[in-house]
Amino acid sequence: MSAPRILVAEDEAIIRLDLVETLREEGYDVVAEAGRGDEALRLVSEVKPDLAILDVRMPGLDGIEVAREIVAERSAAVLILTAFGQRELVTRAAEAGAMAYLVKPWQRSDLVPAIEMALARHRDAVELAEGKEALEGQLENRKVIDRAKGMLMDTHGLTEQESFRYLQATAMSGRTSMRAVADGVLDGTHEYIAPADPTD
Fold first, then answer.
1. Dist. CA 112–CA 118, nearest whole Å
2. Of 70, 111, 131, 143, which one has the greatest count of Cβ atoms within 10 A?
């Protein structure tokens, strides 16, 4: 597997350089660096890292606002850097969707576990969100197909089973989805063609 790609956003240059060097020594691929929050947000959309390490206090946008934007787009995992004693900021970062945090001055022994935790939590969150979206899509498809069946029953005197079979057969013959056929029935762009009578 390729090394996780990381963006580092920290406005104190010495801390940023130290962090970048340590990450590279640990085998991570640092793909971008930023000293401002707004710059970090732009770089995330450009370089698409696996993880963004964000200092809380930055000019432009603070790390928590940047985290909120990144998490909303599900574009990367987020690890927040916070100074010792900024406990309330850790709570705000968690509410913004940060997956892990590291307290400055950070220890090398804490860095890798925090990164791996953030990456794992991000993967879980993406899978959960995608599963939820797929389920919602299936439910919406079922509702539309049921409405189309009802229209076919009312308009052409079909039974529920006949309506379902018609939608299914039309989708198969047209190499499209039942949802697409149902949409056409409901918006009037699909013209109903009665199936041929097998006894003819």
1. 10
2. 70
Q: What is the per-residue pLDDT across 114-142, written as a single tens digit (0 to 9) for each? A: 898 888 887 877 677 666 676 777 888 88
Q: Are 70 and 44 in contact (CB under 8 A)?
A: yes
**Residue with the two structure tokens 């860095």:** 111
User: Is it the case that residue 41 has pLDDT exceeding 70?
Assistant: yes
**Residues 185, 54: Cα–Cα separation, whole Å:** 51
Reply yes or no: is the peptide bond before residue 105 cis, omega within 30 of 0: yes
Q: First and final CA of the chain: distance in angstroms?
A: 62
**Which one, of 43, 45, 66, 42, lies nearest residue 54 by Cα?**
66
Other Cβ atoms within 10 Å of 193 Cβ, number: 8
Phi, psi of 31 (to 5 degrees): -100, -15
